[in-house]
Amino acid sequence: MKMALCLYGQQRTEEFCAPSLNRHLISRYCPDVFICSEGNPDTLRENYQPVAMEIYSPEEKIRAIGGRFDRYGETWPNPGPFKEHPIKPKADLLYLYQGWRCREMLRDREEKYGSYDIIVSSRFDIKYLKIQPIKKPKKNTFYVPRVDAFGQEAVNGIHWGMGLSTHTWWADSITGNFMLNSYNWFDDCFKEIKNWCGQAMTKYMCDKMKIKVEYTDVTCMLIRGTNERPLEGLPPWLPLSEKIHPEYLPQEWEKKKTNKKTVPVKEPPHAVGFNW
Length: 276
Prior knowledge:
Elements: E1 3-8, H1 14-29, E2 32-37, H2 41-48, E3 52-55, H3 58-65, H4 89-113, E4 118-122, E5 126-131, E6 141-145, E7 169-171, H5 173-180, H6 182-193, H7 198-208, E8 212-216, E9 218-222, E10 224-225, E11 230-231, H8 255-258
Parallel strand pairs: 1-2, 1-4, 2-3, 6-8
Antiparallel strand pairs: 4-7, 5-9, 6-7, 10-11
Helix pairs in contact: 3-4, 6-7
């Protein structure tokens, strides 16, 4: 099975989370890795050995996005359970732009070497405890975890009462390329549903394009904070400890990766809004 893995977004807690992604996915399936980030390219090469990588500063991404960057304002109400943390369209656009750039690198490689059997998408700040065995996907099917990276289970096929949570997903080449192009079709979704919400727009487009959704068995969590002081993914963003999500503390097999010289953090950083 010929697999491509697209990793994009900010590095954030990448050093803390990388060993789990390598253990559960990269070392098991040996995918071609595509990266788009604003992070440290040397660290990214060391941890993932990408076949293609692009690094952009925030300013470069904003210039590339152009007038769309300010089109949707600073915030939109969060229709989910954490209404005090609004959705930020600008953060979403920066993230989606990087996913689209991964798609363009991937398409170039497919033109040279043929299509991938499967495209997997993830991000740098997710730590995995389990990923079900990945098999060749069905055509026109979008595979998303039943329990998302915030630990929220899809109820009647819907995450957060909003749509599809897509921190980790996989699909065949045609469907995967389409989903990585959400940077371009989110505008049309917004015009039709009149709401800026990543989960809702993704679900809407799957329904519109008659893309089937299958739920996968993945155990993971978005890790906030820093590599030296990782925090749980949801408010109140407490530091991981023997009492707070101890299952996500480093295991013996990954201590060499995480026990590097650390810089003291006086106060844990707090996420402002949600970058879904």
